[in-house]
Amino acid sequence: xxxxxxxxxxxxVVEKEDVTLDCxxxxxxxxxxxxxxxQPPSGELVFLIRRNSFDEQNEISGRYSWNFQKSTSSxxxxxxxxxxxxxxxxxxxxxxxYNQGGKLIFGQGxxxxxxx
Amino acid sequence: xxxxxxxxxxxxxxxxxxxTFRCDPISEHNRLYWYRQTLGQGPEFLTYFQxxxxxxxxxxxxxxxxxxRPKGSFxxxxxxxxxxxxxxxxxxxxxxxxxxxxxxxxxxxxxLTVT
Lengths: 116, 115
Known about the structure:
Number of strands of chain B: 11
Largest sheet of chain A: 6 strands, mixed
Order of helices and strands of chain B: EEEEEEEEEEE
Oligomer: heterodimer
Shape of chain A: globular
Largest sheet of chain B: 7 strands, mixed
């Protein structure tokens, strides 16, 4: 069975601090995709990144960076120099678009609070 | 096209009533998904369509739930004889399984409160 675990329920940091959100996944599939979504207080899920299982290169987008390690089944997300606008709930998700129709299996989310 | 839209945004109903939600996906997105999100949890998959065909239903989708996508465009999710446990955010998402896609774009959700 597929499963995503986000062990950190809540994280609170002060603005400009770096913060890493952890994500550990379980799957027996060899081909899969991993995602991060942001859910601000308004409620709409915002897509941040997609990574396929064959691409373990780390990615950086502005203040955001992602570290994908198949050896530890982890796909961690780091925000550098956090800002108040980063306050939201962040979800890690897993899907197998070829065998399971692309449905997303979400973790429970990590609520990030960035204080000024 | 501005994205996935859902209607209504909020619905308050009394236990035992029927409710219906609508989702309009992004044009040309042939896959449409429904998820349910309860407070403090991640979204949970309910069902998905490829064009007008409903290809998978979760065990969460009891007999009181039915979803349709009659012409492969918009979709409706109906809950009959609502129960307090149905109170949740119902999210719709669409995707286009092209070579670079597979990410799902979500609508704003319909928040259901059953009193």
